[in-house]
Amino acid sequence: MTSFHFRFESLLVLQRQQRNELIRELTETHTAINDTQEKIDHLQQQRDELRSAAAGRFATDVHISVDRLRHEARYDRQLADDQDTLGSTRKQLEAELEQRRERLIEAEAEVKRLERLREKQSVAYNQLQLQREQATADERTIARMIHSRR
């Protein structure tokens, strides 16, 4: 009895590799989004600390330096601009994540379709082999019966 050979096995292997690559890319995108969010949070923390320090000085200092206020305002604006830039990057990454997620769903569906086809063909092959073996056994039995009657 010969063993079953799925003729689309190489295609199935390629589809699995593509699916695994998409999973890796999806993971990388998740990591990039998380890293970007951490940077945004860190910038927000810096802005909060800057404002808190300025508020503390306003409460205790009698003399307020205009140059220092301008410097802190520029620094706060720079932090805000950096946050905006990172926010845009995060939105782009989220859009990319969604596209990759959709491609992964399609790739997974293709792998499952090929696996179902392989399973169906394997079952059909095994049934055909069983029928052939049964026919061969029946022929032998008939031949023995004919031979024993002579």
Can you lay out the helices and strands and say which pair or pack?
Blueprint: H1 9-60, H2 66-149
Low-confidence parts = none
How helical, in percent, are the residues?
Answer: over 70%
What is the multimeric organization of the chains shown?
single chain
Structural class: mainly alpha
- What is the CA-CA span between the terminal residues? 32 Å
Average predicted local confidence, pLDDT:
93
Count of alpha and pi helical runs: 2
- Tell me the total number of β-strands: 0
List keywords for this structure.
150 residues; mainly alpha; 91% helix; Flag_assembly_chemotaxis_eff; coiled coil; cell projection
What does this structure look like?
This protein is an all-alpha fold. The chain has one domain (9-149). It contains two helices and no strands. The protein has helices at 9-60, 66-149. Helix 1 packs antiparallel against helix 2. It is rod-shaped and about 130 Å long. The two termini are 32 Å apart. It is a peripheral membrane protein. Residues 26-53, 90-134 form a coiled coil. It comes from Allorhodopirellula heiligendammensis. It is found in: Cell membrane. Belongs to the FliJ family.
